[in-house]
Specification:
- The protein is of the alpha/beta class and 384 residues long.
- The protein has a single domain, classed as Glycosidases (TIM Barrel).
- Helix content is 39%, strand content 18%.
- It is built from 13 helices and 17 strands.
- The strands form 4 sheets. Strands 1, 2, 3, 4, 7, 8, 9, 10, 12, 13 and 15 form an 11-stranded mixed β-sheet that branches. It has a two-stranded antiparallel ribbon with strand order 5-6.
- The radius of gyration is 20 Å and the shape is globular.
- The chain starts with a strand and ends in a 7-residue tail after the last helix.
- About 4% of the residues have low confidence.
């Protein structure tokens, strides 16, 4: 069983973030400033030994790879920020590619949304996302090709795995995927690329062009909450799905993220949203995959109040012990119901969203130990 953790590269300075958020801004800025909003709220979260690392230091990436391998995390899925030729936060991944001593499997998820001020509850677009045509698609593919060719890159059936975050906002998604597959075959991958996307429980634009969808948790289980074993969904979930599909269409036409505006309005009215960790995991484990084009997702915990403050959402009741038990069940479910060998975990280091396998002062190595123990419990150890 391959445990693949989403990996955020925003732990080093870049000029754009200095301009937009202030000198020296990294993800740690939000993490350090976090505060509790209710009794028992575990904020701020502090990395073990106050290890507020800089990802431009190769020793950090070597440490992460060693830690992941020691506890059974098969690979990282790097978020990749490409805006029609302009990139942000690309250096850690580029350094990793050059340094073959960083012995860790990896793949790439193109985080294809515009770069906005959503973290401070504004919808201002800082860098728009434009998708271009074949010339621009080739430029993007040529940049990615050295990664695809690397021996450490995660491949499925010999095809490099390429994840796209939100394909539903790409009008030309079918043409782009077809062209990238053509280029991949010309580059020596006879069957092209293996395309997957993060799904939130809705049919996505161009879904038939993708090989797999990844159930991105905890969001996916929140959209499709079952009310019985017959896979019915609640009226609230249906209305949420319709609303998101509608706002997505408007976003493609206008560039205005109405879903973000709606979310900010809701949070402003409600304050910190508290969600049951156990109930959300129950929804994950109760869910029956609709087909064999699904890869299941897991999450360690979730608390994005470091970014969104009193408008954030916090999952209450999470512990490493619970995570181990739930992940162990999901491993069995992945084999028996999904007929798959990959689970995507949110996340390796999403510290400002409370989703991290990396050790912290409160839980030490608890969430990593949970991964190791769940794998061992299911005879999935050692990880190759």
């Amino acid at each position: 069983m391959k445990i693949i953790a989403f990996y955020l590269p925003q732990f080093h300075n870049i000029p754009e973030n200095d301009e937009w958020w202030g000198d020296g801004f990294t993800e740690w800025t939000n993490v350090r400033k976090a505060k509790p909003y209710f009794e028992g709220h575990n904020q701020p979260e502090i990395p073990l030994n106050q290890n507020y690392y800089n990802l431009l230091d190769d020793n950090v990436k070597l440490w992460q790879a060693k830690l992941a391998k020691e506890y059974g995390v098969y690979g990282f899925c790097y978020y990749h920020y490409w805006f029609n030729g302009k990139m942000l936060l690309e250096k850690p991944m580029e350094q990793m590619l050059k340094n073959k001593e960083i012995n860790q499997h990896f793949c790439i998820c193109w985080a294809n949304e515009p770069w906005t001020k959503a973290w401070v509850n504004e919808t201002k677009i800082l860098i728009p996302q434009k998708y271009g045509h074949e010339k621009e698609w080739k430029e993007h593919f040529d940049y990615l090709l050295p990664f695809f060719k690397d021996d450490r890159y995660i491949k499925h059936g010999g095809r490099p795995l390429m994840v796209i975050y939100r394909p539903q906002v790409i009008d030309c998604i079918k043409e782009m995927i077809s062209y990238w597959n053509k280029l991949a075959k010309e580059a020596g991958f006879k069957d092209g690329l293996c395309f997957a996307y993060q799904t939130y429980g809705m049919e996505e634009k161009g879904d038939d062009m993708f090989d797999y969808s990844i159930e991105f948790q905890p969001a996916y289980a929140g959209v499709f909450q079952k009310v019985n074993v017959n896979q019915k969904v609640t009226v609230h979930s249906i209305l949420s799905s319709i609303r998101i599909k509608t706002t997505t269409k408007i976003e493609r036409m206008t560039g205005i993220n109405l879903e973000a505006k709606f979310d900010m309005y809701r949070k402003k009215k409600m304050g910190v949203g508290k969600v049951s960790y156990d109930l959300r995991w129950k929804a994950i484990l109760d869910h029956k995959p609709e087909n064999e084009k699904k890869w299941p997702g897991a999450f360690t915990s979730w608390d994005n109040t470091p970014r969104h403050h009193e408008r954030g959402i916090c999952y209450v009741g999470s512990t490493p012990g619970k995570f181990k038990n739930y992940l162990s069940q999901l491993i069995r479910k992945t084999r028996e119901e999904y007929h798959a060998d990959m689970i995507f975990v949110n996340a390796w280091n999403e510290w400002a969203e409370g989703a991290h396998l990396e050790p912290d002062e409160r839980n030490k190595y608890g969430y990593l130990e949970a991964v190791r123990d769940a794998l061992k419990e299911n005879n999935e150890w050692p990880v190759v």
